[in-house]
Amino acid sequence: MNVVIVKDYFAMSQYAANQIIELVNKQKGKKVVLGLATGNTPIGMYQELVKNYRDEKVSFLDVVSFNLDEYYPIDASHSLSFTSFMKHYFFDHVDIQMENVFIPLVERDSTEKEIQAFCQAYEKKIKTYGGIDLQILGIGSNGHIGFNEPGTPFYSRTHLVKLTDETIQANGLRENGLEVNQAITVGIETIMESKKILLLASGQDKTKIMKQFFERNVTVNLPASILKKHSNVTIVIDKGALGAQK
Ligand code: F6R
């Protein structure tokens, strides 16, 4: 596990964006498969990517992307959907081809069987494209990655989850009038199959969980802890998230 300590949120965002840009430019003309996250953590990274695209330092024409998760049920057009988030911060501003963009958005009122079939198809699609080359992750204050909440088996694959109250609160769903308590998320095993993983952590809200991440052994109670077993993972953490060690 590599650990990169950076000054602040901006430096973390730049580091992550540069990793993506280097990979995409190195593979020029060949497909690059990115695993993408939403939430506050990667917003700065997307802004950097858009800036570099505008400066003609990178093109996303050859990029295929798979988002980690999406609420269920939700309409793509809802302002809190991860689909809206991705368009707002990234897709609408770069030359990525929308047919190369995948988000686990399942049609409302789907049956259990239909949801399962969707999840299996999502996994299959990732495999068809040769797997995720670079997966970007944030970390929940309870240690979740994707929406794999504490207790999720490490062998999990794309599935429907019930969100914890902590996550519902952290994501401000109720105060924004969204009565949703489920989501589709790629599984922990799906994440672990990525060729390279970047876990980003910024700010004091993440100090407690990152301290646990570094100190605790691998446990399902802290889903992100499994990343320690990945052969190519980099933790990009800013001084705020390091907190106590300032
Ligand atoms: C988002 C995701 C989540 C977030 C995590 C941290 O696609 O999968 O695991 O990365 O909840 O969220 P923020 O960045 O808002 O602190």
TrEMBL record:
Chain ranges passing through the membrane: none
Superkingdom as given in the UniProt entry: Bacteria
Pfam family, one: Glucosamine_iso
BP term (GO), one: N-acetylglucosamine catabolic process
UniProt xrefs under Gene3D superfamilies: 3.40.50.1360
Boundaries of every Glucosamine/galactosamine-6-phosphate isomerase domain copy: 11-233
Keywords, comma-separated and alphabetical: Carbohydrate metabolism
Assigned EC number: 3.5.99.6
Coiled coil location: none
This protein's record includes keyword Acyltransferase: no
Top EC group: hydrolase
GO MF entries: glucosamine-6-phosphate deaminase activity
The protein's name in its UniProt record: Glucosamine-6-phosphate deaminase
Taxonomic source organism: Tepidibacillus decaturensis
Lineage: Bacteria, Bacillati, Bacillota, Bacilli, Bacillales
